[in-house]
Amino acid sequence: MERPRGDRRPVLVLLGPTATGKTAVGVELAFRLGGVERIGAEILSADSRAFFRGLDIVTDKPSDAERRGIPHHLIDVVSPCDAYDAMTFRRDVERLLPEIEARERVPILVGGGTLYLGAVLRGIFEGPSKDEALRAEMADHSVAELYEQLCHVDPTAAKAIHPNDRLRITRALEVHALTGRPISAWQADAASLPYSFFTAGLQRDRDDHRDAIAARVRAMIDRGLVDEVRRLREQGLDPECQAYRTIGVPEAVDCIAGRLTEDEMERAIVSRTWGLARRQMAWFRREKGASWWDVTGRRAGEIAEEIATAWERFLEADDVRT
Question: How many whole angstroms separate alpha carbon 3 and alpha carbon 9?
């Protein structure tokens, strides 16, 4: 393919809610962009939990066989008890893009982590450092009380944050308290990375999507999800760790402790995953310029071929514009 004029190669983004087949389509797409003779792309993961080592089954992380030799970045980069935030992700992506370009490969940003995708596509501000005293004070209040307060001081941010997401609610209130300005206003001023993006979105029929989520959760349990979480707990994973909030971890902990049966755990994970998918789609619908593919009943290779063709057209248009 001809490289568009300008200083930076465009970035291909493959996004969509959980359980829409992004991993398989991304790998197929990477092969098609290089042709039969070479790998033509490298994948940067934007899965909000694949960053953590050890959370292999519970995050349905792609195996080495599933990656099929395609270089993958930003998977297994931090321990399960460390933290990884959107600003760090943005910096990592900003560092990796020129490296991939130097290898004359296409960077494909693949995932459904809206916070992390937003840091690249919409921008993010670094914000003030954590205020431990303020956070300790907020820890004494219920998440419902904190969310009510956020609705009052920053209704725009409140609409974008789940009412039970204590971490993001706390951060939004912290930014407002420390700067006197809503976090949504800071975010509105933020800028995306200085690249042009071709954004391909994957979606599927509602009933088919729910069935896919249920099948994936069942497969994860059969592969040993509970044993994986048990090992992580023995290695120090606790409720204070960011990775502990991964869907499937608290439910497996409750199953291990006897508070949930396996069937109850399975239903709880499916329910939470479906709720996540719905929130992701609500976020993606606001992504301007995205082109959407319905994957219901279709093969990953077929979808990848169509996206590769659309990508080529995008490059030609970008070349004309510049």
Answer: 7
6 assigned to some structural domain: no
What mean pLDDT do residues 290-307 have?
96
Residues 184, 200 within the same domain: no
148 and 195 assigned to the same domain? no
Q: What is the mean pLDDT of residues 68-92?
A: 92
Q: CA dihedral in degrees (238, 274, 125, 73; nearest 10)?
A: 70
**CATH number of the domain encompassing residue 276:** 3.40.50.300
Q: Model pTM?
A: 0.82
- 233 backbone dihedrals φ, ψ, rounded to 5°: -65, -40
Structure confidence at residue 1 as a pLDDT band (50, 70, 90) = very low
Question: How would you write 50-116 as a 3-class SS string?
Answer: CCECCCCCCCCCCCHHHHCCCCEECCCCECCCCCCCHHHHHHHHHHHHHHHHHCCCEEEEEECCHHH
Alpha helices per DSSP H over 130-261: 132-139, 143-153, 155-160, 166-179, 183-189, 206-223, 225-234, 249-256
Q: Which range marks the domain in which residue 246 is found? A: 11-123+191-321
CATH number at residue 163: 1.10.20.140
Mean pLDDT over the full length of the chain: 91
